[in-house]
Design a protein that fits this description.
The chain is an alpha+beta fold. Helix content is 50%, strand content 16%. Helix 1 packs antiparallel against helix 5 and helix 2 runs parallel beside helix 3.
Length: 101
């Protein structure tokens, strides 16, 4: 999981990441998001919100086995529920590291 978090940190530095639930949902709505990565430890309400929005806007969402504090630390924040990867190349690299595609 460390490689995934490092790659997401790199995407943040490159300006290709929206951090936080509100920013992530906004990126999904605007069609900027190639992938949503969320912590498995988010609340049921947040999971439903992420799943509903990504399904409606046909964006893939992946829940990874880290807590919100660990996900947030990858970006210098205290806690982060989810992020939107706004670049197809970074999204493909994350999915590859997680065993997909």
């Amino acid at each position: 999981m460390t490689k995934v978090l490092s790659l997401l940190g790199l995407a943040k530095k490159a300006g290709r990441l929206s951090v936080g639930t509100e920013n992530t949902i906004e990126s999904v709505r605007k069609g900027k998001s190639a992938l949503v990565v969320a912590s498995e430890s988010v609340s049921d309400g947040t999971k439903k919100l992420i799943n509903d929005k990504t399904a409606y806007y046909k964006t893939e969402a992946i829940f990874i086995p880290v807590d919100t504090a660990e996900l947030g630390r990858a970006f210098g924040k205290t806690a982060t529920a989810c992020v939107s990867v706004n670049d197809q190349g970074f999204a493909d690299a994350v999915k590859k590291l997680l065993g997909g595609n």
